[in-house]
Task: structure prediction
Amino acid sequence: MMELHVATDEGNSPLEKAHLQRLFAKYLNPTKGYKTLIFSDDVEKTYMVKYSGKIDITNYASWFQFVLPFKMSDPFIIGSFEKTLTGSGNLVNEGTFETGLIVEISGPVTNPSLTIGGETLTYTGTIPSGQKLIIDTEKETAKIGSNNTMANYNGVFPLLYPGSTNVVSNSNVIVKWHDKWI
Result:
């Protein structure tokens, strides 16, 4: 649970105040599921929240204030921007919690492998030209297109821990991730 304290600007007519209240109610509709919440002073972090509770509005002559009760979809705060590394280099998770990786290996290539933080990911077989092997280390899946290729994958699913992690791979490998905080 989290609370967001809200106050409108001064100078609203009673009609404008009523209009603003309807806009807030429409946007906060809990039947629409979880929505992203990003604060303008920290755009690097995205919270997944849903309105959960009751709003008590305190009215003043030309403005009003209230507290929005939110429920987060999970305890994690996700980085707003996807990070990528092509080929070898360092992955940096600036968050405080381990996060999953998406590894894309583009064909044509036979028996590709790469190393992430000392763990070796290997695929036995050929990835055709124009196709990609996509390994999701959080969901623990390996696919080419919609085809499950786990039978040809060695089943190594490293997570990216806070800090820097070394990657050794070829230029046909792209690693993607979002920082994660708890």
About this structure: The helical segments are 14-27. The chain has two domains: 2-74, 81-181. The longest strand covers residues 42-51.
